[in-house]
Amino acid sequence: MTIRRAELIPIISRSNWMAKSSTRKLKTIGLLTDLNAPLKTQSIKPRDKRQPQLALDPMPARIEPQLATLATKVPNGGGWAYEVKWDGYRLAVHAESNEIRIITRGGHDWTRYFPAIKDAARALGPARFILDGEAVVLDDKGVPNFGLLQQDLGGRRATRAANRAVLYAFDLLYFDGHDLTGLELSSRRRLLKTFLEGETGAIRLSEEIETDDGPALLRSACAHGLEGIVAKRKDRPYRSGRSLDWLKIKCSNSESFVVIGYEPSLLVRGSIASLLLAARKDDGFVYVGHVGTGFSTKLARDLRVQLDGMRVAVPAASGIKGKKYVFVEPTLVAEVTYGSWTHDGKLRHPSFKGIREIADNSEIYTIGGNS
């Protein structure tokens, strides 16, 4: 792909990211007419320390991702930009000197698990850049499906390459010697659109949706089977961590809970009937019920094998009644959808979506302060 530097550089220049070019004419070095005489150059003057340095920034090894805060209502107004909320794995793609690194939200190098995205990033070169986006696998209807992504990866531990994964890039954090995180979102988006315009392979542009009616956009996203939308303040820089500059609004109740045990299956030998779930509360966990639907037969058996290697005698949360349960270390996180909460703080009609790890900065539902 041809890098459109002629279009990118003016935007950076207007944002004070390029050093102003000098108007002075350069003096040529004069050679002596005597070919046997030694060559001499003009004496080098010490650099004036008050002179500004070139506006080139070293490429960071990693940038902590900016996170969206969960909201119940869609913000309206001209200061907001809207995008689809992708249901996959948050990734940062680093390209430098033909070396591609694909980093997860938790800082793990998963380059080998996304070969198609790696090849697509290399094809965008020779630019040096950092893309922020979400890797997804689309179903037959073109809707992101988290279960299909985990299936392609061979489970939550990622034991094989997800060749069908596509990265929808929604931010450009670094480009050709320039740290763009200080730019407002609207400028970063213009650069990103110019950079990825026309790309239809394993790296694609996450389109910004122009609308004055955010609630109508959310209704449309839900009708198409999407997870929700994200609203972002157009005039804000990129800020690592969670803030109110980015808001996520979901179509359904979908949250992550820590797995603290399981109920063995009485019908299928070596399988599970349900997972015991807990939410964060203060400095510990509180039991919020169990989920027993949404598993494939193979996944239920695989989880049983894995959880049996994590057994503990005492559960991580209190209030669990029954002797048939097996308790485990609280290191896995289950994503579930649910209808509502019961009066005693339990999930109503939960359904399993997938498994993540706490070690990868998975978000766990917090009672009394969830984000």
From TrEMBL:
Q: Which residues form a coiled coil?
A: none
Reaction catalyzed: ATP + (deoxyribonucleotide)n-3'-hydroxyl + 5'-phospho-(deoxyribonucleotide)m = (deoxyribonucleotide)n+m + AMP + diphosphate
Give the top-level enzyme category: ligase
Any one Pfam family match given in the protein's UniProt record, by short name: DNA_ligase_A_C
Entry keywords, A to Z: Ligase
All copies of the ATP-dependent DNA ligase family profile domain together span 158-271
What Enzyme Commission number does this protein have? 6.5.1.1
UniProt GO BP: DNA recombination; DNA repair
Which Gene Ontology MF annotations are present? ATP binding; DNA ligase (ATP) activity
Give the UniProt family note. Answer: Belongs to the ATP-dependent DNA ligase family.
This chain's protein is named DNA ligase (ATP)
